[in-house]
Design brief:
It holds the Pfam family CbiA. With 463 residues, the chain is α/β, with parallel strands linked by helices. The protein contains 19 helices and twelve strands.
Length: 463
């Protein structure tokens, strides 16, 4: 009996101990990272290998509105605790509208960077979508977002809208490019050659418009026989050939001028007849009866061939003729005589907008031309001297023996421009000058002289 009781007590204690051990094992198994080999055997796991999930591309409409990055103001980070961080996102729109959030914050350097990035992105989008003709301005209420300014009708220019191609480009003028254009049945258009482009550019210089009445240009020098009359005719022809308005050259030489002999004379009327019949001239048709016109449309008013009558032509007579010419012509050239102290010279210089001084290629001719400039400066015409153009006529005798470069260097220190007029057989003949029969180099020099004279005259002035 006693032995049986002992066995029962031992079994009871053994069962309690087993339960305690099982409980301990359960507690240990619930601890993180505590797994025994028995537990692994008691709880077997199954591993299943699955194929990788397919990756679908995002549709284009979602890509267009996707937000990859969000600008966060570092100054807006609020520390809430050891395990939580609060991030407050301030968009540019809210920042520009005066948003203050939960508390007042000082502006950070990142704010300026954020505004510049937003402005840059906006400009790039506008430039990409609509081109470079959209004006961008800063809106006072929203500096980060620029606005578009509507274009005016003046912005729709031909250069902007017309696509120049072989069908819209003008046909080339002359030379090899014109030959290619015609041979290809107008399919190949190379445009104008550089030579033609230079010719057109000079024509534009000569064709400069004026406002406020006629412009007067006297051609003068102290010495006769240097080609003053020839230079006057060349200048007038170059102007008339390139311009659409009227050009006239008046022979005011009191010593029997020969300007009218440079063209096919169509009338025997002279400046004296204009003065005598001035009251009957009521328009250009009446005035045109007194002039001769050449192939370039240059009108020339001759002087009297009688030396006695020529001497009687004074400053009052010139003012009558010049006043009538100013009504019907845009540019009035005056071929002055060799006597610079003559009364006509005073009236001529008072109306002058620019002057052309003619010099020959010899030593004495160059010296006398320089003395003409000195006389003008001494008599109150210094501004005309500084704006003058000197034409060096290389057709005079002795030119080949003289250093023309030195003559030109001398005049460069005194006047605005210098032009060399080369020798031309037609000019040397001293007779009628046919513009289209002149050598190309002579025409070019005359056109250069015309362009320089036009550029020296005021574009606008009061009547």
């Amino acid at each position: 009996m006693t032995e049986d009781k002992f066995d029962d007590d031992a079994a009871s204690r053994l069962g309690a101990g087993a339960r305690t051990s099982a409980l301990d094992r359960g507690r240990r198994s619930t601890a993180p990272g505590a797994h025994s080999a028995d537990d692994a055997a008691a709880n077997p796991s199954v591993r299943v290998d699955l194929p990788p999930a397919p990756v679908h591309e995002m549709p284009d409409d979602e890509v267009a509105v996707a937000i990859d990055d969000i600008a966060v103001n570092p100054g807006s980070l609020v520390g809430g605790g050891s395990s939580t961080t609060s991030v407050e996102v301030i968009t540019p729109a809210l920042a520009g509208a005066g948003y203050r959030g939960g508390s007042r914050r000082e502006p950070s350097p990142y704010s300026a960077l954020l505004a510049s990035d937003a402005s840059k992105t906006r400009r790039e989008r506008v430039s990409t979508d609509t081109g470079s003709h959209v004006a961008i301005v800063d809106v006072p209420g929203d500096p980060a977002l620029p606005a578009e300014v509507p274009e005016t009708a003046d912005s729709l220019t031909a250069d902007r809208l017309i696509d120049l191609n072989r069908t819209t480009r003008p046909a080339p003028q002359g030379g090899f490019n014109r030959l290619v254009y015609e041979a290809s049945l107008h399919l190949v258009n190379l445009g104008d050659s550089p030579k033609v482009q230079a010719y057109k550019a000079m024509s534009q210089r000569i064709q400069r418009r004026f406002e406020g009445g006629a412009r007067f240009v006297p051609v003068l020098t102290r010495k006769g026989g240097v080609g003053k009359t020839t230079i006057t005719a060349l200048l007038g022809m170059a102007l008339a050939d390139a311009r659409d308005d009227r050009i006239i050259a008046i022979d005011a030489n009191p010593d029997r001028g020969t300007l009218a002999e440079r063209v096919d004379r169509q009338t025997r009327e002279t400046v004296r007849d204009v003065v005598a019949k001035a009251s009957s001239i009521g328009g250009y048709t009446d005035f045109s009866r007194f002039v001769s016109r050449d192939e370039t449309r240059l009108d020339i008013l001759a002087s009297d061939t009688d030396p006695t009558l020529s001497e009687a032509f004074d400053d009052n007579d010139y003012n009558v003729v010049a006043g009538l010419a100013a009504r019907y012509y845009s540019i009035v050239l005056t071929d002055c005589g060799t006597g610079i102290v003559h009364s006509v010279m005073r009236a001529t210089l008072q109306r002058a907008d620019s002057v052309v001084i003619v010099s020959g290629g010899s030593v004495d001719e160059a010296r006398l031309a320089s003395e003409t400039l000195t006389w003008l400066e001494a008599n109150g015409y210094g501004e005309l001297v500084r704006n003058a153009v000197v034409a060096i006529n290389l057709a005079t005798q002795g030119t080949h023996l003289v250093k023309v470069d030195e003559i030109e260097a001398h005049f460069q220190s005194r006047v605005r421009e210098i032009v060399r007029i080369p020798y031309d057989p037609q000019l040397a003949a001293g007779s009628v000058v046919n513009w289209h029969e002149l050598r190309p180099v002579t025409q070019h020099a005359a056109r250069e002289l015309a362009a320089l004279v036009v550029e020296g005259m005021p574009a606008e002035r009061e009547h």
